[in-house]
Structure formats: structure tokens, C-alpha cells
Model the fold of this input.
Amino acid sequence: MKQQSRTTPSRYPKRGHHDAETIYPILDEALFCTMSFVWEGRVRSIPQSVVRMDDAVYFHASVGSHFFRSLAQLDEVCITVTLADDIVVAKSAFNHSINYRSVVLWGKPEVIDEHNEKAAAFKTLTEKMVPGSWDYLLPMTDKQMAKTMAIKVPISEASAKVRQGPPSDVESDAPIWTGLIPIKPVKGAPVAGPDAEGIPLPEHLR
Done:
């Protein structure tokens, strides 16, 4: 991906990456993002679930969403994701840090009306959230499809920034513990809803 001035970190530029091999896995692991844009002279930010297919990210919302209906009129949105891996505990509070992987990308939003692409985006997002569930669930109806808007943002400009590793303050011999505290999210055991009493847990959720 071509490096641009605004995709080059001003601080710790060596942590910046502009290749799809770094950027795409971060997008694929992130379940949520923040979409930011300017509308009617004011900055807006929307937290959203996100999924990538090929060289674009996709979002869904109700067709009645004012914010999402306005997106197609915009020339550009900014999308950010952050995966926090560890709290980095150093010998001094000044050098405490976070091990993280983040992506910032820009692109022009498009409303997707083509049925097959829209259905593929919904299926890919569902499988990302709950792997193996699409074929188990009730099929999505045409009425449900009509009530749901799909937005596509081609990844035209993007960069990743990554920090991994131990604390950096090694200049002192003080006997102070340093290291990493992992904070990666972990999916817990499924909790059955009231309508699931007596229904065996499906294999894809085991």
C-alpha cells in the first residue's frame, strides 16, 4: 500500500507499516472499529462491527439510520481499529506502555445494493463473530435483507502501527519488577438464553 504523509506516524515512525500482510490480519482480528467523518460541519464517530472482504471493509446498519444514510454523500471516512495485547510494566511509570496493533484507513463509502455482495458481507460478518454459525441459523429472508443497509469502504489508503516487546527502560539496575500483563480478549463459555432450555449446545459453539 502506498505510503502517504498522513499514514506515516509522526512518533516512532519505525512502528509504522504500509503492507497488506500487516494491515489485513489486524482488520480481520478486530471485531469492532470506530468510523469518523465530518457531517454538516461537525465531527461524528460511530462504533461499529467491521468485516473485511478482499480490499474493502463492510458495515451494516438499519436502513433508517440517519448517520449511515448520510455516508454515501461523503467523499471520505476515517476508520480506526486497535488490538491491545499487553500492558507493558516498566521500572518507571514514564516508560509504562502498551503492546498493540492498530490500523487507520481512509476510503469513500458506497451503499451496496447488489444482492450477492450484500449477502456475502452479512455472511462473512456473521462467521467472523460466531464461526460456523451461518448454516446453523435460520436463513436470512429477503425482508430482512431489505431492512438492512450494507456500506462498503474500499481500502484506498491505510497504515498499521505496532508495538510489541518488553519495557524499554533498561538504564537502571533498581530491583523493580518489569514485564507484560496480557490483556487479550478471550471468548467465554456460551450462556444459554431463555428459549434455549433443553437445546444442546451446537458443535460450532463448543
